[in-house]
Amino acid sequence: MFVGQEVTVQERTLEDANEDVVYLLDEGDVVAKSPLGAVQDSILVVNSDLYKTGTRKPEDVELPAVIDGLANTPFRLRGHPTSDKEKLLLITVSRYIERLALETDGGTHRASFQRLSRINDEQGTRAVYERLADTDTETHVYGMPDWTPPPEFDVTMHGGWNEDFRTSWFVVHVPADSSRPHAALVAIEVESGTWDGLWTYDTDTVQQLNRYIEREL
């Protein structure tokens, strides 16, 4: 998962360990740890079809502490057909942010799909956004306008053809209560099937992203 990234993976044998554990270190200090099984179940043995079909729902998405702790770390990840696994990291975090929006039931949620038809084409994606539309969360969707949500689908559509619509992938959650958790993922398709992205829980950064998208898109 982390080959070629700003994350170095090393393996060690610890005499007092009775299970395989993943530790996240920052300058030698342990900042998070998770059982390897939790990392496997959340990302390593998952495929994107589980999300597209709706087999794995947002409430089923758990981010192990060592993955959650990689917030603000930049990644360059490749999608299909070059890699079937790399991009799944960003897909999983996207679904986790959608889960936060559903649980908060309020505030603002913004998401980009490059092509708006993706919402309709992917059964699982449509189900998530139909659920968001039924909450008190103000939901905005962005992308090239090759599909229009029907009137009963209570989301605000933003369609366009410029680079921001064609190459950006973002999921931004700003709760109504500023003291609640904020979250955002932003990725840019730098070449076909290759994405530069990161996610963050920093309140000021998330709010700045939200204002930029509201103003520019």
From TrEMBL:
Boundaries of every DICT domain copy: 81-176
Pfam families membership: DICT (PF10069)
Source organism superkingdom: Archaea
InterPro entries referenced in this protein's UniProt entry, alphabetically: DICT_dom (IPR019278), Uncharacterised_Vng0742h (IPR016954)
Name of the molecule in the record: DICT domain-containing protein
